[in-house]
Amino acid sequence: MSGDVPVSVIVLTRNEEATLGNSLRRLERFDDVVVVDSGSTDRTAEIAVEHGARVVPFTWDGGYPKKKQWSLEHAGVRHDWVLLLDADEFPSPALVDEIAALVRSGRVDEHGAYDVALLYRFAGRYLRHGHRVTKRSLLDRRRCAFPEVGDLDAPGIREVEGHYQPETTGTVGALRHRVVHDDRDPVASWFDRHNRYSDWEAYLRRHAALRADVAARRTAKGALFDRVPFKPLAFFVYAFVARRGFLDGRAGFDYAVALATYYWQIGVKVRELERADQAVARRAG
């Protein structure tokens, strides 16, 4: 890579041969692209090299830092400003232009990090309405770090940081254009991932201090929604009606139902854990 945008891109991978090439082709304007790979057994590393990226191996040792923070510290990036992406994510052309203009103007340092909204692909369609995921993806690694929230014993999400944002000693800005989340995997893989994610979320809800710590590090929207009662119904109404997810047709409906079901799944698992704790207490008594 020898593009005209002086920003380092870190792409996190594990067995991503199906999507990685498409994402790396969209990063050609960036001067430095690093793929941090967790022992892929497919062609992930080969594809990365073919597209001019540097490959840095990562093996999680079971402690902190987890993969994202480790990458900021040890991936050997050339620049202080880093765009942190998953293997199926890439910046839209408009976002690349926006980042380039921000860096060249010198205004990028006005903030320590920037939030970016995702253009999400689900069930074969890009969702332009409904719930919008926001990630803190553009980071000044001198002023940003992922917190150690105490979730090393939590199931579901292990080597990569969970659903919380990196912290910065500066302020947080917002970029106008989006990162494309180009998920082309079968829908079954979405449910597999969210089954694991719900294990992690249920664990949080059974550990009040950990839940509060993670909630404080989510985006303002995420922290607010964490306190909403009747989450499955509330989320469906929010995503499909209030945020006009119905304009995305059947895919918009399916996505709203899928995420509402995810929140229902968390609740079921929390209640199961509570019953198990009560059974242990009765036996001890």
Automatic annotation (TrEMBL):
InterPro entries per the UniProt record, alphabetical: Glyco_trans_2-like, Nucleotide-diphossugar_trans
Domain Glycosyltransferase 2-like: 8-107
PANTHER family according to UniProt: GLYCOSYLTRANSFERASE, POLY-BETA-1,6-N-ACETYL-D-GLUCOSAMINE SYNTHASE
Highest taxon above the source species: Bacteria
Protein name according to UniProt: Glycosyltransferase involved in cell wall biosynthesis
Gene3D superfamilies: Spore Coat Polysaccharide Biosynthesis Protein SpsA, Chain A (3.90.550.10)
